Amino acid sequence: MRRQVYLWRRAGIRSLILFLLIAAILVGFLIRMDRAIRPNLCAVCESETKRYATQVLSNAISETLDTHDFTYTDLVTLIYDTNGNITAMETRSDQVNRLQSTLLDSIQTQLEACRDVTLEVALGTATGVWLFAGRGPHMSVQLMPIGNAAVELISKLESAGINQTCHTIYANVTAEIRAAIPFSETTATVEFSYLITETILVGDVPKSYLSLGDTSPS
Question: pTM of the predicted model, to two decimals?
């Protein structure tokens, strides 16, 4: 009877040791896989976050311009001499500030709505192997806008041919969004430029680069 109990205990110890060995190997494998996949997973999450945020910024600016209908002459006043040549380009500060403020309010509203958005990323994509791209179980990525967006209106003059100058005004938007995944997170800085207006000016134009300024809430 004692021998049978001894054999049972011995078998139980062997089973426990085997179980612990298998568990240790499995944990070590999972840790190694996590270290190999997590950097790729964070990179994929950052890329998807930038793609989604860029679309959000584009929609916010587009909706604002469609609603308020800003035109070139609302932002810039051209001054001519007696020969019809452009001698100066004056920025209408009140309209520029109004446009910047309107764009910023719209962008902040759209970004705040991102707090309820989750993106799905396939784990197969995080392996970095193209054969597994888009395959396997999906992981949810929650977006969390951080800080405040900044809007800067840029004015640029470029030659458009003989005696012609192209004057473009575009909005340069910068925003930070944090993407959270289980046990990790990554921060993506999104920079997006949107053309506000473009005008071809005929005649001599002062060769200068105009920065209309920027606005970001403190």
Answer: 0.67
